[in-house]
Design brief:
This protein has about 200 residues and is α/β, with parallel strands linked by helices. It has helices spanning about 15-25, 45-50, 75-90, 125, 140-150, 160-170, 175-185, and strands spanning about 5-10, 30-35, 60, 90-95, 120-125, 135-140.
C-alpha cells in the first residue's frame, strides 16, 4: 500500500466524497476507510493504523452531525485526532457544513482549534439556502493557495453574485443568529428522536 495515500476517518460517507478520495490515486488503494467512532469514542483505529507504519497525507472527517450517520465527534476525539495530525504530519480536512444548525446542546470547538494541520470547510447552501452554492475554506496558507488555483482550471470562478449575497447576509450577525434560532425551533406538534441538526430533516 503506498505510503502517501489519503484516508477517510469515517467508514460511512456520501458517495461523492468517497469517490473524490479514491481519485487522488490511480491505484485501487487510493484511500482507506477507518471505522466510524461513536460519539464519545476516540480515533483508536486510525491511531493503530498509524502506529503500524502507514503515513496518510489527508484525513477527511465530518466532525458535526455526520451524514449519513448523524453522529458528532466528542471534544476528546477531536483533540486526539488533532494530536495525531501534529505527530504524524497529515492534513485534516474538517468538513463542517452542518455545525451551525445545532438544535440543542452546546457547540463543540472544531478540530481546527487544536491544530494548525487542519483545512476547515463550510457551506452556505446548508445554513442559508440550498440555491446558494457558495462554500468557504480556512487552513494552512499553502493549502489555500493550491485550492484557489483549482477552480481556475475548471470554471474560472464561482458566481460572484451569489458570493455577494452570502457576504452581505453573514455580515448581519443579528439576522443570521435570529435565523439560526428560528431554524432550531421545533413545532410543538412534532417529536424528534435523536436528530441533532437541521441538515438531516429537510
Amino acid at each position: 500500500m503506498p505510503s502517501w495515500i489519503p484516508v477517510t476517518w469515517w467508514s460511512w460517507t456520501i458517495r461523492s466524497t468517497w469517490a473524490r478520495c479514491r481519485s487522488f490515486s490511480p491505484s485501487r488503494h487510493g484511500s482507506v476507510r477507518c471505522p466510524s467512532p461513536r460519539r464519545d469514542s476516540t480515533s483508536g483505529s486510525l491511531r493503530d493504523w498509524l502506529e503500524a507504519g502507514e503515513r496518510p497525507r489527508i484525513v477527511h472527517t465530518v466532525s458535526n452531525f455526520h451524514h449519513p450517520a448523524g453522529v458528532s465527534a466528542s471534544d476528546s476525539a477531536r483533540r486526539e485526532l488533532a494530536h495525531l495530525a501534529d505527530r504524524y504530519g497529515f492534513l485534516i480536512v474538517e468538513d463542517d457544513p452542518y455545525g451551525r444548525l445545532r438544535f440543542h446542546g452546546d457547540d463543540v470547538e472544531p478540530i481546527a482549534a487544536h491544530s494548525d494541520q487542519v483545512a476547515r470547510l463550510g457551506s452556505a447552501s446548508k445554513v442559508l439556502a440550498p440555491a446558494l452554492r457558495v462554500g468557504w475554506m480556512s487552513g494552512p496558507p499553502e493549502v489555500i493557495a493550491l485550492v484557489e488555483r483549482l477552480p481556475q482550471s475548471v470554471d474560472l470562478c464561482g458566481s460572484t453574485f451569489s458570493q455577494m449575497i452570502v457576504a452581505e447576509l453573514f455580515a448581519d450577525r443579528g439576522w443570521f443568529e435570529a435565523r439560526r434560532a428560528h431554524t432550531a425551533g421545533v413545532p410543538f406538534s412534532c417529536r424528534w428522536f435523536g436528530i441533532g441538526a437541521a441538515g438531516h430533516v429537510w
